[in-house]
Structure formats: C-alpha cells, structure tokens
Amino acid sequence: MSTDNLDAEEGGNTLPELPANVGHETRIIVAVNESGGSVKTTTVAALAAIAAEEGLDVLAIEADSQRDLAHLLGCDDPDANEDIATLFDVVDGIATLDEAIIPARQGEGGLVIPNLWFVPGSRRLKELDDKLSGAMLRELWLQRIVQGALGRFHVIFIDCPGDLKLTTKGALLASKDVEVMACVKSQEKEARALTELEATLTEMNAAFAALGVQLGIDWIVIGESVSDKSQGKAYTDAEEQLREAYGELVLTPSVRRSIKVPEAYSAQTPVPLYAPRSEPSLQYREIAAGMGLTKASFTP
Ligand SMILES: Nc1ncnc2c1ncn2[C@@H]1O[C@H](COP(=O)(O)OP(=O)(O)OP(=O)(O)O)[C@@H](O)[C@H]1O
Ligand SMILES: [Mg+2]
C-alpha cells in the first residue's frame, strides 16, 4: 500500500515520506532458525525498533505466513485489510515493493514509529512453493524484490518462518552479503537446530557457488533465557554449550525471559518501545550495539 492510502494525520502524527535512494550501503540481516518459536520475530522487532531509534532508516520484511511481525509493528491482520499490500502481493505482481512498504506503529492505529518501515507478511506465503514451482532459479524470489530497497535503508531485517524451506532460502539469497542471524532459546533442541542450519548453509553455498554465495552464521542471539540455575539448570547448561561451541558469534548478553515480552506482543509494540527500561530492552540494546546497529557504525 502506498502511504497515500492513509490519512496524513492518522495515528496522531504526520506520515513520513518513504526513504529515497541516497546510496546507503544497506545491510541485510536475516533472522533464521529451523525450529519454530525461537524468538526470531521478537528479536527482529526489537532490533529494528532500536536501530530506528538510533536514527537509522530501517525496513523489516516479513517473509512469514504467521504475520506476527506485522502484529508487533501495529498491523494485526494485513490480509484482512484490502488497503494493505503484502509481500505475497509483491511476489504475485499485483503490488510494487513501495506499495507494500508501510510505516510501523505503536499498536493498531497508534503513533508512527519514526524511521521504521515494514512489508507485512501474508497467510498466502504458504502458497509460495506452489506459486514458484517450475520457475527458474526460484530460490532467488526475494532478491529481485529487495533490489528496490537497496540504497534507501541502512538496514533491512528479514523475518523468516521456523523452517529452512523455500521462503527462508529466498531470504538467505536476498543478496550476496546477507548477515545470517540465528535466533535461539537456551535449550538443547535449539542448539541442534543450529547444526541443521549450518548444514543447509553449506548445501546452499555449494548449489549457488557460481553466484558467489558464501553463507555462514554471522550472529547468534539467545533469547528468553533464564537467569540462574535454580530456575532451570538445563537452560543454563545449553547456553554455556552454545557459547563454547560458537564463541564470539554468540552475542552478549542473552535476553532474559520476562513477562514484558508477551505484554509487548499484546500491545502490538516492540519491547524496547513498550518497556524501555525492562531487562530484555536493555539487553537488546547491548546486542544492537554489538551488531553495529548504531548511527556511528554507518558511513554517512
Ligand atoms: N525474552 C522473552 N521473554 C518471554 N517471552 C519471550 C521472550 N522472547 C520471546 N518470547 C515469547 O516466545 C514466543 C516465541 O517468540 P517469537 O514469536 O519471537 O519466535 P519466532 O522464532 O518468531 O517463532 P515462529 O517460528 O513461530 O515465527 C512468543 O510468544 C514471544 O512472546
Ligand atoms: Mg516468528
């Protein structure tokens, strides 16, 4: 949907202009994990909100049929609103990328979050496999779309579903230089999912070597961890094992389990804006700084 479809003053503040191409070197950060419920969407919403607060121009693309990211950025059901174009509509050729980029809000119809834009997912992304069957180089489905956002945003986040199928592969191939951000809870099964992710990345590197693809895990975010052994030794052990196995790839600190995160979800607001002083918000800020998501890290 273009911003023309919204009232200029809707939500109590004037709608911003979509960023033009000013030649930014755009970073693309893809949130992945083979297992579902592994804090990908929470992390994308949190880091995107923090980067936007830093003054960076940020686009979050929701490559997931669950639409949790759209929910968290103030749009509960993009499929139910005919004024809103989704990522699927762009794939389908019935909307342009710009028509699908909308400003993020704090809650449905709430205040616009400055500098933060998103492309909502759609339930129809489940049909992507069928839609692209027989298409040449179908794994590159997102690359063409993302081209239109390069140079306009400092950072593009892509939120993936909890599997490593075509949708996620497309996100990983959105450009040659994507940064792979694996999101995990501190549980052994999630650490095993990282091994699966590494195997998939190796396969993709072999399959797309001619295109210069060289994927590897760049960042690991541990979300929803418990703070001490009395709350769950298995959790702290799994966290220690992850840090041992992956060393500096694992960002510090881990994000603690907190009621503020589900509360923020209900309020349809990224946790750093919903509860700025809460533990997870402070931890996500440190993680963002560790990933260089600060204005100072970008050349003007
Ligand atoms: N630090 C935290 N404290 C408490 N709950 C959390 C925390 N982080 C995430 N959660 C909750 O865990 C659940 C899963 O998180 P999230 O939706 O971010 O995972 P996901 O990887 O995107 O899942 P899916 O694979 O289904 O898309 C959500 O209900 C979320 O609110
Ligand atoms: Mg999700």
Write up what this structure looks like.
With 300 residues, this protein is an alpha/beta fold. It has a single domain (3-7, 23-294), classed as Rossmann fold, CATH 3.40.50. It is built from 12 helices and 7 strands. It has helices at residues 40-53, 68-72, 87-92, 97-100, 128-131, 141-147, 166-172, 188-207, 233-246, 260-266, 271-274, 279-290, and strands spanning 27-32, 58-62, 102-105, 112-119, 155-159, 179-185, 217-223. The protein has a 7-stranded mixed sheet with strand order 3-4-2-5-1-6-7, with helices on both faces. It is globular, with a radius of gyration of 18 Å. Residues 1-9 have low confidence and may be disordered.
Short descriptors:
single chain, 300 residues, alpha/beta, Rossmann fold, 7-stranded mixed sheet, 12 helices, disordered N terminus, binds adenosine-5'-triphosphate, binds magnesium ion
Give the secondary structure arrangement, pairings included.
Layout: E1 27-32, H1 40-53, E2 58-62, H2 68-72, H3 87-92, H4 97-100, E3 102-105, E4 112-119, H5 128-131, H6 141-147, E5 155-159, H7 166-172, E6 179-185, H8 188-207, E7 217-223, H9 233-246, H10 260-266, H11 271-274, H12 279-290
Parallel strand pairs: 1-5, 1-6, 2-4, 2-5, 6-7
Antiparallel strand pairs: 3-4
The structure holds adenosine-5'-triphosphate and magnesium ion (MG).
The site of adenosine-5'-triphosphate has 22 residues, from helix 1 and helix 10.
